[in-house]
Amino acid sequence: MLPEAGLSFAASFAPALLDPARSTPEVVTGPNGKAANRRYDVYRNNVTVSLIDALAAIYPAVQRITGTDFFRAMARFHVRSNPPTSPLLFEYGRDFPEFIAQYEHAQAMPWLADVARIERAWLDAYHAADAVPLSPARLSAVRPDRLADLVFIPHPAARCLRSDYAAVTIFAANRDEAPVMRIDASTPEDALITRGEFDVTVRRLPPGGAVFADGLMSGRPLGEAAASALEAASEFDIAANIAGLIEAGTFTSLSCGDPS
Amino acid sequence: MSTVIKQVPPAAMPLRFATPIGGVAGTSFKPEHLPDILEAGPRRGFFEVHAENYMGAGGPPHRALETIRRDHPLSLHGVCMSIGGPRPLDKAHLARFRSLVARYQPALVSEHLAWSTHETSFFNDLLPLPYTEATLACVCDHIDQVQEAIRRPLLLENPSTYVAFRESSMRETEFIRAIAERTGCGLLLDVNNVFVSAINHGFSALDYLADFPLSRVGEIHLAGHAEQTDDEGDLLLIDSHDGPVADAVWKLYEIVIRRRSAVPTLNEWDSKIPDWPVLQAEAAAAQAILDRHQSTAMAGDRHAA
């Protein structure tokens, strides 16, 4: 779309903001004929640094793992190729985990993208709509012969992520400043992210737990979800898992399937 | 059925604070200060938040803002509306802004004379615009839309800038005065921005203030700035909001308050955020200046009565 007459300034001003190869736009100047290169660079710097800072705020564990210099270099590439499309910065960086997975210099840390996925889900849970979590008493009140048909409504903050690596342990160890002990990164771990009463929590799910949680959160009846979980892990404990999911605030409501 | 907690309806959030709130000093509200603020209890003054930080659906940010709003007047400061840009306003963003105004009943609502979005990219900075008849018409149209949406006047903030546009045909003060006259909007005078732009563009800050429609000012901002140099090696000030207010800016502020008396004043601090007492001390310094000139004005009121 062509801008209206006299309104082409933004189209002239914007392209060089994230592209250091472009020169200062001709449309701007310093006062009294002064040059505008360093002046325009203030805007380039504000844009680039503030967006890198935004990624650092969303992905603090990734930054702690890689170190600040590595992180900022990686984030700068991402910011320049994928600037935000929403003015809500807490929505930014959804494609950053995939970028990390492809990033040449991060290949030695194959679990890093999954840690980033947990951090992104953490922030989504943080801003998700408020809802009262399902009370455990609701499950106790269900007749045993109706349990298999139970269907659950997921809490807006609830997320489930699977990893081939020890992503939950690595995430948890790097979200604060405490020293990190040696972690065996090769143990697969699945994450449950919820916001119960107040704060976001990230839990590690037992074997089969992610299949079970995913099934229930996508609306499959309890019996079906449990069967899939048992297929995935023969030692799967249905009672402990459903109690754990409810206690974590994964759901807001339940119903006994087809009302007919 | 989902048991989603209902948002507090506007009627249940009593305004409780007279608007205009008068000559009180406020601070930026930063969530890390919440425990200190609550421990100290309700205080004179107000808190300002960036609207975009509270545009999520729910969670801790809204809980914190509701807590603050219960005992203090609130100033809702929009940063990303892109009022100064050539593109139509983002309707979804405008709707979010309107909901926040309805939900929190802020005493003050403001936005910037700047733009931050172009095509599909959001640049997260307050970018400058040329001052021409064409941009004036566009900005006024955008402000009409915002004021129509929120059903109240908006306070528009003067920018700090580092470059000028060759095509500009009006002074910034002339441009801002015309906007206020055409749209009926109020103004947010950022005194630090005046000082920063005056140094950067080589004009007199006092002349700018003399030319600024002070009667329209509904809020004042104060903030710290940083120093760099331009291509010629001359001083270039950066509107960094990361430190205390400079002495020169305090002097300009006192000149404005002497002329305008009671105007709510905010100490902005957005980066390298200090402990709460430091921010509170900055606000106390502004409050002292406000009180000094308020007592004279109030004496004048009594004489008039």
TrEMBL record, chain A:
Gene3D superfamilies: DUF2063. Residues 11-100 form the Putative DNA-binding domain. Pfam families: DUF2063. This is DUF2063 domain-containing protein.
Automatic annotation (TrEMBL), chain B:
Coiled coil: none annotated. Belongs to the UPF0276 family. HAMAP family: UPF0276 (MF_00697). Transmembrane segments: none annotated. This is UPF0276 protein CVM73_08265. It comes from the Bacteria. InterPro entries: MbnB/TglH/ChrH (IPR007801), Xyl_isomerase-like_sf (IPR036237). It comes from Bradyrhizobium forestalis.
